Amino acid sequence: MKILEENDWFVLWEEDGIYCSRYKKPTVDLEMAKMSVAARLRHSKSHPCKLFLDIKNLRYVSQAAREYSASDESIYMAQACAVLAPSRITKLIANFFLSFNKPKIPFQIFTSKEKAFEWLKMTETEK
After folding, report:
1. Phi then psi for 39, rounded to 5 degrees?
2. Which member of 7, 27, 29, 95 has the greatest number of CB atoms within 10 A?
3. Angle made by CA atoms 39, 14, 77, in degrees to the nearest 5
4. CB–CB of 119/53 below 8 Å?
5. Dist. CA 61–CA 77, nearest whole Å
6. Range of the domain at 65
7. Any domain includes 107
8. Phi, psi (deg, nearest 5) at residue 70
9. For the domain that residue 84 is a member of, what is the CATH number?
């Protein structure tokens, strides 16, 4: 695991060729979502990549942040996204997101990091 960027709001690291992110705060707003995406694009040099998001600390995501997260700008160069939602509340947040903001890339919710990585590695990428 190689930490690429860390601040008060999130940590971004690369592990097994997958870009991983975890929000540190229980609330995510539009500014935080944009900063996270900008960091991923900066560190991946805007190359295609698979994403793993650990949302175990989240309790609320603003509507603007949810809409942005499903936008073309946010998923630019993202091939697939696996979300770790190990608790009931994080699962509810992830499912709420999916019910209103359908991702345009393969997207799956997991309760284990190992299963998420397995799925990401098996997910087909566009040619």
Report:
1. -65, -45
2. 29
3. 55
4. no
5. 23
6. 2-122
7. yes
8. -95, 0
9. 3.40.50.10600
Q: What is the pLDDT of residues 15-66, one digit of tens each?
A: 999 999 999 999 999 999 999 999 999 999 989 999 999 998 888 889 999 8
Residue 87 pLDDT: 82
Beta bridge partners of 51: 19, 81
79 Cβ contact partners less than 8 Å away, ≥ 6 residues apart: 48, 49, 50, 105, 106, 123, 125, 126
Structure tokens at 121: 């590695």
Q: Which pLDDT score is estimated for 125?
A: 59
Rounded average pLDDT over 119-123: 94
Tell me if 127 is assigned to some domain.
no
pTM flag (> 0.85):
yes
Total domains in the chain come to: 1
What kind and span of H or E run contains 60? strand 60-61
Q: Please count the residues of the chain.
A: 127
